[in-house]
Amino acid sequence: MLNALWLGFFLIAAIFGLVQWLFLDDPAVFARLIASLFDMADLSVKLMLMLFGTLTLWMGFLRIAEAAGLINVLARLLSPLFRRLMPEVPAGHPALGLITMNFAANGLGLDNAATPIGLRAMHALQTLNPDPKSASNAQILFLVLNSSSLTLLPVTIFMYRAQQGAPDPTLVFLPILLATSASTLVGLLSVAFMQRIKLYDPVVLAWLGSTVLALGGFMALLASLSSVAVAALSSLLGNLVLFGIIIAFLLAGAWKKVAVYEQFIEGAKEGFDVCKSLLPYLVAMLCAIGVLRASGALDMLLEGIRWLVQVVGLDTRFVDALPTALIKPFSGSGARALMIETMQHTGVDSFPSLLAATVQGSTETTFYVLAVYFGAVGIQRVRHAVGCALLADLAGVLAAIGVCYWFFGQMVQP
Known about the structure:
By secondary structure, this protein is mostly helical. The protein is 77% helix and 0% strand.
């Protein structure tokens, strides 16, 4: 899928370039295509320098949290819930701890760091699978929740915004939190419907009820504020939560007499190893998106969609962020490249860029996740996993659009 997508970008760019040269008398289009290749290659290296720092930093802090036992505490805390959502997984099984660690990494927005942990969790669940060729209920629930992008602290999104010059990188903290909550809730409910999970169990109701009440109360509070106040609150909470988690990890490590510096270094080494393999993928996708934009193909597609939206009588500012939403289920690197390209084309704090960042933080590369995780354990029959995961993606995109109009519709000019 990714191979066809990448090749298609270049072929479409070539066709549109020929059209502009032969029919629109614009021979300079080829100069723009070549210039975009070099520009995007240069941008890829600059992004990687900051990504190296971000991933090594957070993998280091996660290692401290793991050594301090915080991951085990979370696993014990979530064990009663998972025993009911995944009744075929015995209490205390290693898969529960690995699933918790995977959710923790995803929650911090470290999607690349979460993948190795998620693969270990899938292997652990496979040991309980009575039919090795068909996805078990527990594996499907884990994959759908994973692909629903449960992102509580999207540090990599903050990093990309900072690299593009955003004066306040955490401005999208609350929009992403609300949109990803919608995505995860829809994913859970869809799987629960397909698997006949008893959501009316007291423990499940306590978890879901408290979460829904907390989010509902929080949204009621936000509804009482102006758009400027909401954006300011998002910024404050983003920075406060980010630094608060760092201090909590360090204090927990000190309390447990963990050698926090040594553990940080070991975790940072893992982050470095994860990050160094990403540059070729980032260069490939950014260059493909660059030539697509330079050829005029992407602009023509967006103008066509914008015209249809205008005919319906809706606001069109969200249209420029749609490429990120459309590509995200197929390619994380492609969606990331489109988000960055949108930031460069429209401005890092424009409405389309804020929406693209929110979509990037609240949806997941569904087909990639399903292919990698199921492929790693030889699953051939995925059952209802794809449908539930795509439904969660759709909920995340629609929620992101609605939330961004709520937060930034009046504050940010098109």
